[in-house]
Amino acid sequence: MKAFVFISFISLILSVQSSAQTCLSGDCSSGFGKFKYENGDIYEGEFYDDKREGFGVYTWKTGEKFIGESLANTFSGFGVMEFKDGTKYIGDFKNGEFDGEGEKTYTNGTKQTGIFEKGKYLGKISYYGKAVGTTGCLNGDCEGGYGMKYYSGNDRYFGYFKTGKRDGYGAYYWDDGTRWVGQFEQNLLTGYGTYFFITGEKYVGYFIDSKRNGWGINYDPNTGVKKIGFWSDNNLITPKSTLVKTGGATGCISGDCKNGYGKYVYNNGYYEGYFKNGYRNGQGKYYFDIGDFYSGNFDDNKFNGKGTYYYTNGERYTGEWKDQRTHGKGELVQFDGTLKVGYWKEGTYQDKTTPPPGYDAWVRNNYQTGTGSGTIAANNKLPTTTNTNNKPAVTNPTNTKPNTTGTTTTGTNKPSGNNTNPTNNNKPTNNTANNNIVTTGSNTSGLVTTNFKRKMALIIGNQSYQYTTALKNPKNDARSMAQVLRSCGFEVIEVIDGSASQMKTAIRDFGAKIIGADVALFYYSGHGMQVDNFNYIIPVDFRLQTKADIKEDCPNINWVLNRMENAATKLNIVILDACRNNPFDRGSFGEDDANEGLASITPPDNTVISFATDPGSVASDGVAGTNGLYTGSLIKYIASPNMQLENVFKLTGREVREKSSGKQKPWLNTNFYDIFYFKMQ
């Protein structure tokens, strides 16, 4: 009873407005500030429209403390409540009360773990009608699809699986209250998402191999202070405040922010992408200072076309946008890990099968015309969706300029603190860049090619093997490939005779560096093997003893593909001159386990994969001191100006096939439909 009375007291306090009281520092209207109330309570955190909205720390004069999310002056979302007598609650809040999943620990050590509603404990969680504590896959496909799995130790996961591992987007709940809602790769936290610590600390941004890497925001649980910028191995290495060297806190920090590709720092966020007339136009990524993140197409500063929006509470919408609202076909991964798939109409979810009126014509006009950027005229309306679960529904970020037409709809549990969308006030102005080059002739009528400016490559050449047959030319192949790519404007990471640790480190570094790039290219020359239909590239220090050694010690090509896909680059190219014969003794795994050549790979979106020869076949290493047959031809065509990507590989394949008298047939698989030139004149 004591706890329930206190929660009601909290709700009463939080109904008090902040007007006519004292802002000690910062922006206590729509920003980040520290505010002292007339009764002596102090709040430090995010504000919007003169209310506490977003992440912050509320400390009562009497000694109690709340760390977490608020909405309209009321605790809503994930948070930690510390009572004066030592009682502690970690979990979901709604309307200022414990509501949702959580854990309450009393001073005598007694714990209540499970579901709460309006401050009352209802009991432990039972999933899908199974007995409490039932382990294993409780729903869906936990091998290669979307499912829910309950682990020993009471950890739970809702999300995507690949080969039985957490891979893709999902929500993981640890038994102690810690949560991650975001991207996984091979069971590791890799990609964009939100991590809630049991201390109340919160990080929203990129993880690579379960460490903070890339752009991110970390909230201090003691003060509410945010650390914003680029992270490396859990350390903030480049704060946002240091990105703009001269001229104040905002501005263009690199590239062409008027008519081309550039990077621009705003008061409320950071943008990497294309500009037209000084407006965000074309493909880009906007990182809001509140933790929200959008990656997709822009038109006149607004979300239009296809894109993905990551909410700071961990939810994610992937699909179509119109007039800065979810509109068309999409998928929403909700805060509790459940999926909502179907059609949206101007920010409101319809159902699984009913498209909005005029949808087919809208798609034809904006995605299939082959002209312009494939976007729609925008206005100042907001990205919104409708929440239908029992979690708190909150509003989405709003523009600093009020919308004079239309209305916004309910959001998706997203705390809306310092959540103003970028406006024109600080943006550079000028005329458009040539974001799109319309090609002519040679069967390219109606096609559009994007201006791919930032290009990154990882080149690995393994030749001097310690425990198996050495090869003749991978060092030459790798060095030649690195040289020609540098001449084409690529930034290159080069690894020669890489050990297992060196190769894995290089792949991780590559995955972090290509975030924000336009093109990512991975090239490997050396021994390769397929085991259980997966392809592995062999380090020079690898020594085969068991089948498990291959899977544990040798990088899997899927690792590279996953990192490329997570980086959301416009074009990914994978080149494998590794289809040589199995270098180890046959029979080690059984007759069918170690096949010649490499296995076929289905490319993800915007990905081109090229093998030196067709799947299951063996490629030539060439004459010592030169280049391998395949790479020797490939670098010649890459260096040829004004040659489209597909023609580079087609001509390489034809030449290799002719020179080998038909014995070696390079193989290409593509899921890329734009136009790209390695070199233009």
From TrEMBL:
<protein>
    <submittedName>
        <fullName>Caspase family protein</fullName>
    </submittedName>
</protein>
<dbReference type="InterPro" id="IPR001309">
    <property type="entry name" value="Pept_C14_p20"/>
</dbReference>
<feature type="region of interest" description="Disordered">
    <location>
        <begin position="373"/>
        <end position="438"/>
    </location>
</feature>
<dbReference type="GO" id="GO:0004197">
    <property type="term" value="F:cysteine-type endopeptidase activity"/>
</dbReference>
<dbReference type="GO" id="GO:0006508">
    <property type="term" value="P:proteolysis"/>
</dbReference>
<dbReference type="InterPro" id="IPR011600">
    <property type="entry name" value="Pept_C14_caspase"/>
</dbReference>
<keyword id="KW-0732">Signal</keyword>
<dbReference type="InterPro" id="IPR003409">
    <property type="entry name" value="MORN"/>
</dbReference>
<dbReference type="InterPro" id="IPR052039">
    <property type="entry name" value="Caspase-related_regulators"/>
</dbReference>
<keyword id="KW-0677">Repeat</keyword>
<feature type="domain" description="Caspase family p20">
    <location>
        <begin position="453"/>
        <end position="583"/>
    </location>
</feature>
<dbReference type="InterPro" id="IPR029030">
    <property type="entry name" value="Caspase-like_dom_sf"/>
</dbReference>
<feature type="compositionally biased region" description="Low complexity">
    <location>
        <begin position="377"/>
        <end position="438"/>
    </location>
</feature>
<feature type="signal peptide">
    <location>
        <begin position="1"/>
        <end position="20"/>
    </location>
</feature>
<dbReference type="Pfam" id="PF02493">
    <property type="entry name" value="MORN"/>
</dbReference>
<dbReference type="Pfam" id="PF00656">
    <property type="entry name" value="Peptidase_C14"/>
</dbReference>
